[in-house]
Amino acid sequence: MRRSLGARSGISNSIGLVRMKIEPGKFLMGSPDNECTRPAEQEPLFWPFDDHVSEREPQHQVQITRPFFIGATEVTQQQWAAVMGNYEGRMDYGWRMPLGPDLPVEVTWAQATEFCARLTAKEHRQYRLPTEAEWEYACQAGTLTAFNTGQVLTADYACFGKAGQGGTCEVAPVASYPPNHWGLYDMHGNVWEWCIDGKRDYDSGVQKVDPIGPIPSKEHVARGGAWSSSPVNCRSAKRKCQSSGENGFRIVWEVSGFGDLDGDSLPDW
User: Fold this and answer.
1) Gap between the Cα atoms of 248 and 253, Å rounded
2) Which spans in the chain are helix H?
3) Can you tell me whether residue 82 is helix, strand or coil?
4) CA distance linking residue 47 with residue 49, whole number of Å
5) Which tens digits make up the pLDDT trace of 3-31?
6) Sign of the CA dihedral running 193, 131, 238, 244
7) Does the structure show a pLDDT above 50 at 57?
8) Burial classification of residue 257, based on how many CB atoms lie within 10 Å of its CB (0-12 exposed, 13-18 middle, 19 or more buried)
């Protein structure tokens, strides 16, 4: 069952995709060496399909200088169909990704960027994937803990650690769990979320301003963990820099304010 957006309201576009405004600010990107069971190799390999390759994530100061709107949820199969045509799903590791209008899509990075391009043409507004820095800033939502729910992630707050049964993944409809403090759902778990930039190394000694990795890249960053991930792989700072399935996305619309909202409306969730 979808939950209310609560105190924060967003802007809904022509396909019912709700976007939440994120104000500029500074934050600590990455994680301390002692965060939970980081690096991932320290965790017993009991979780199916986990990415146990630890990408370096030293903590460093980052400044986001421009406001942006980000999807309150991952892009759903219904929203995908409204832009791209019928969504057929795909098979990953022997599990069939289920079909349903409110379930997130599972797509490649190229497919996600094509969706953004077509939505841009449809609405004459610029849509794109979030940068890795924007994604983590939005995920943290002002928190300083491993998860935006605290130092521990439980099944009350995210879809994770679920093995497929009967050949079907246990992915959840978007907004099935409580949002973070900035009104964003499923930032932990459900499906990994593509970012626009490719793999880059962090520089922990220098403050970065609107950092972004290479966009033409062999490897692109995905964030947030998935329905089958262990908690350590759902942390706010966790990075995955290769495609191994279970990847969806949420969109960003970058604007300076509310001056260009003709045709947009408040959500009716």
Assistant:
1) 17
2) 77-84, 109-123, 132-140
3) helix
4) 7
5) 443 446 678 888 889 999 999 999 999 99
6) positive
7) yes
8) exposed
In the chain, where the domains are located: 1-258
Tokens representing residue 94 in the block: 């022997």
Question: What one-letter code names the amino acid at 47?
Answer: W
Rounded to whole angstroms, how far apart are CA atoms 195 and 218? 13
The conformation of residue 7, written as its DSSP 8-state character, comes to T
The residues with which 222 forms a beta bridge, in sequence order, are: 194, 240
Give me Rg for the CA atoms of the chain.
17
Backbone phi and psi for residue 114, each to the nearest 5 degrees, phi listed first: -65, -40
What one-character-per-residue DSSP string does 185-224 give? --SSBSSEEEEEEE-----TTS-EES----SS-SSEEEES
Angle between helices 109-123 and 77-84 (to 10 degrees): 60
**What is the pTM for the complete model shown?**
0.86
222 close to 192: Cβ distance less than 8 angstroms: yes
CB 139 within 8 A of CB 187: yes
Say if residue 263 is exposed, middle or buried (CB neighbours under 10 Å; 0-12, 13-18, 19+): exposed
Decide if pLDDT at 42 tops 70: no
Class of domain 1-258: alpha beta
**DSSP code of residue 124:** T
Could you give phi then psi for residue 17, rounded to 5 degrees?
A: -90, 115
Helix (H) or strand (E) holding 11: strand 11-12
Structure tokens that stand for 179 in this block:
């949002």
